[in-house]
Structure formats: structure tokens, C-alpha cells
Write a structure and sequence with these properties.
Number of helices: 4
Shape: elongated
Number of strands: 0
């Protein structure tokens, strides 16, 4: 029989997945910046260069922001709690009594 090992933080999202998600967000932001600034319309070469530079800056900001936000959100997740089944309402207090005013059975 195979022994089930505890869930680790790395098992929740692999670093390659995190980088891939951040790259996809950066690519999306860069394309939106290019389209919204008219890169594919009639522009002179210096204007195209400026638009491409702005799009690269926007893509870089989106890449870094996505990495930081997803990494911070993953720190909020306890890996041991991921595989645990919850049989009670999540927002109720842990020591719930029957005389709770918002209890659905009353």
C-alpha cells in the first residue's frame, strides 16, 4: 500500500504553474496595451517604438504584480487544511451553540 504523504505548499501550485500564470497575465496585459494604443494602425516607426516600450512596461508590471499577489495568497492557505473535509458552515464560529440567532434550524 502506498502511504499518503501530507500536502505541502509546493503541491498546491508548482512554481512552473505560477510562472506560467504570471506570463499569461503579462502577455494579456501587453496585447491589450498594444491594441489600445493603436500599434496595429498607421503609425510612424518612432511611434511604434514608443508604443512597444509602453506595452513592455505594462507587461512587466503585470508579470511582477501577478507573481507577488498569487504568492501572497498562497501563503494564506494552510496546506494541511486543503485535503480536510469540512462538515459545518465555514462562516459560523467553531463553538457554535444552538441558541445562535442566525442558526438555520430556528
Amino acid at each position: 500500500m502506498s502511504e499518503q504523504r501530507p500536502t505541502r505548499r509546493r503541491d498546491l501550485m508548482k512554481p512552473v504553474q505560477l510562472l506560467g500564470f504570471a506570463f499569461a497575465a503579462a502577455l494579456f496585459a501587453g496585447i491589450i496595451a498594444l491594441v489600445s494604443m493603436g500599434f496595429f494602425q498607421d503609425l510612424t516607426d518612432p511611434q511604434r517604438g514608443q508604443v512597444a516600450a509602453v506595452a513592455l512596461v505594462v507587461a512587466g508590471i503585470a508579470f511582477i504584480a501577478t507573481l507577488v499577489i498569487i504568492a501572497l495568497l498562497m501563503l494564506a492557505v494552510d496546506p494541511a487544511q486543503v485535503s480536510k473535509q469540512i462538515d459545518r458552515p465555514v462562516l459560523y464560529p467553531k463553538d457554535e451553540s444552538d441558541d445562535h440567532p442566525d442558526h438555520p434550524d430556528q
